[in-house]
Description:
Elements: H1 2-53, H2 58-62, H3 67-82, E1 86-90, H4 114-117, E2 122-128, E3 131-141, E4 147-156, H5 163-197, H6 202-218, E5 222-227, E6 232-235, H7 237-243, H8 261-269, E7 273-280, E8 283-291, E9 300-307, H9 309-334, H10 341-352, E10 359-364, H11 366-369, E11 379-387, E12 400-402, H12 408-415, E13 419-421, H13 428-431, H14 435-444, E14 448-456, E15 459-468, H15 477-514, E16 525-532, E17 539-547, E18 553-563, H16 565-582, H17 588-605, E19 619-626, E20 631-637, E21 643-645, E22 651-652, E23 671-675, E24 681-685, H18 697-709, H19 715-726, E25 735-742, E26 750-755, H20 761-776, H21 782-799, E27 804-810, E28 813-820, H22 840-847, E29 850-856, E30 859-867
Antiparallel strand pairs: 1-4, 2-3, 3-4, 5-6, 5-9, 7-8, 8-9, 10-11, 10-15, 11-12, 13-14, 14-15, 16-25, 17-18, 18-19, 19-20, 20-23, 21-22, 21-24, 24-25, 26-27, 27-28, 28-30, 29-30
Amino acid sequence: MTGRSVAGQVFLLQVAIVLLLVVAAAGALVLQVRHDSTTEARNRSLAVAETFANAPGTREALTAPDPTAVLQPRAEAARVRSKVDFVVVMNTDGVRYTHPRPDRIGKKFVGTLGPALAGRPFTEEITGTIGPLVQAVVPVQADDGTVVGLVSAGITTENVGGVGDRQMPLLLTAAGAALVVALAGTALVSRRLLRQTHGLGPFEMTRMYEHHDAVLHAVREGVLIVGGEGRLLLANDEAHRLLDLPEDAEGRHVLELGLDADTAALLSSGRVATDEVHLVGDRLLAINQRPTDLEGGPAGSVATLRDSTELRALSGRAEVAREHLKLLYDAGVGIGTTLDVTRTAQELAEVAVPRFADFATVDLAEAVLEGEEPDAGTSLRRTAFSGIRKDAPLYPVGERIGFIASTPQAHSLGTGEAVVAPDLRQAHGWLAQDQERTARIVEYGIHSLITVPLRAGHLVLGVANFWRSVKADPFDEEELALAEELVARAAVSIDNARRYTREHTMAVTLQRSLLPRTLPAQNALDIGFRYLPAQAGVGGDWFDVLPLSGARVALVVGDVVGHGLHAAATMGRLRTAVHNFSALDLPPDELLGLLDELVGRIDQDEADDESSAAVTGATCLYAVYDPISRQCTVARAGHPPPAVIRPDGGVEFPEVPAGPPLGLGGLPFETAELTLEEGSRLVLYTDGLVENRERDIDVGLELLRTALTGAGRSPEETCRAVLDELLPSKPGDDIALIVAGTRALDPERVAEWEVRPDPAAVGEVRASVTRQLTEWGLEDMEFTTELILSELVTNAIRYGNGPIRVRMLFDLSLICEVFDGSSTSPHLRYAATTDEGGRGLFLVAQLTERWGTRYTPDGKVIWAEQPLP
């Protein structure tokens, strides 16, 4: 105790001395730095002031009309070069001509001017506007000694010196070194004192020994101390128990204690050992041994003994548990990577083999494979198989299996509980399923089975079977729990895949029902088309070919944003709207305008329904081709532009104003007029063909141009070439493609006459019609055609404006058209029996297949179609 007190006093004394020295050195340094700074400031300011006062031109500038203009830049340059804080030139009254701050020029100088006015340089310390500083004032004298001005230079004391900053780290380093030396000296003194007194008295030593002895015998690890001659000096209670030592073991040689040869040899040798495992009786002991004379201690060794029997058993169980957790983790990651029922079932089988079972099979109800809820029953179809070998005599994949009531599978399906059959040779209910096959399975070496139902809520989707053959131990209850957990996770993924399959099937069915199944009969275009739904889900792409009046044909492609049932249903609504609007014979830009308003109304109706997606962003392209004039009128709403393949094989993308996507509203749509040579091919498509995650639309359009350039002549060949070049392996969006080869109506099948606005001209029209029909070989249609045109021309003369023109087209039907300059549309009405008129259009409607009105920039056209005989 005294030694430690002395050591403490020595330590405190040395620390006090060192601290005192550090404080004294710091004070001396501060005083020295302050003195050096002031001296340096005086010398520098005086030198700068004298140099500037005696500089050429200074005296002359003081007598100049504007001294400041001459001296201010010189003073500032001198201040910067000399690194002072100011250089001020003033007159003998102390009025400043220069100053670093221009706003102080013209004001009185702060300081003593008397000595300088007397012709003597003068320095002083003051506190000025920029802080404590040293300034010098020097006179500027004329040749006769007269003082004509004064120059002052000053510098703040904080900007001079730096000696203290350089010496302070050295001082602190020296102080730190002194402290280290002091601590080292104190440690040496304390160690010497403690070595001599051991720091404790007899009472403390006795108490310490008792504590050490209590700890030694209380630890759950055996401790042996062996002397240099191999005699046992000490063994605690745990060592006695583990080695079954006799009571008088201490003091005897370790070779005489009845230990096994290996253990006795290790303890007597004194060599270093680390976790050496020795079998002592029925225990596995891990022995660690170290010599005691490594650092000058007494000869001998210390050995510790640890019973690792239970630890090994616990470690084995922990390893099994870790493997089970790893299996469940891998199952969570590896099962359900796709929304395909069959693939998900296969993933379950592959995860289980070989880490849990040697073979795994999954049997699902057929309704599940089709996306429907399973019916109650035991008839399943083998969906997945995985095994360490491929020749196992289990039911093959794809086979339909009807499990009898006594089998574990039937029990699982009926009760929803997992079943373990530890010995299949004794599982009579399972053996009865198919005696020939089950006998071959047992003979093959498969001896244990776990059957777990695939449950998703109240539904039992099927069963998963785990078979063991290589490992001799049968499945136990712990492994049954693992199988249930594994299958429970997989069942969720299989049910998700089933639901997706059902929704996808419904969407595909809806979409196919909404798309055109066959193309309408028309003679203006040779049509080839392709429609490819996305693998990720049904989208909203659509296309249509719509015959119009006057042998014209409308082509339309569109794309609704999103996927699934909503997109397919919205596509159907838009397609129906296009059908209805096209029946009005509207120009493409007007039709897109009406479609844009419709999309806006759809979005407004569904704005409050959180489950509904907006339609805004849908795109559409509408084109009308006239085989008589070979004019194609195109308008698009945010849709990719069409492509045109000329008869010579050249490909171009005509400039068609893009227009905003449907639903944005507020902006008009514009049309482009294309003149297509006969034999040209017009290509319309959706963005899924030219744009995906791997490439942008510009790259896709160039690829499309290349594909179209090398395509064959027919539309079908063109479709095939385009898809071979651009179709991605896994389309992420629907693809709609139309290739329309243009035809021109033979001029010989077009007849046209100008009609005078005179009722007598009706007879001339009938005569011309008769001649033309005879020329076409349609004599059987003369009467009805004359009657139709007579009514239409009479109405045009009576109610319309000139000019009036009649045109007949001999196409798939006989088309009669009457042009006039009025925009008033006729209306079909049913005349009463007493009315003298009003039956003309009624007769036209009865005699024709269809009739209607379309408007032109100059008026309207009344048209009627008759089927050919």
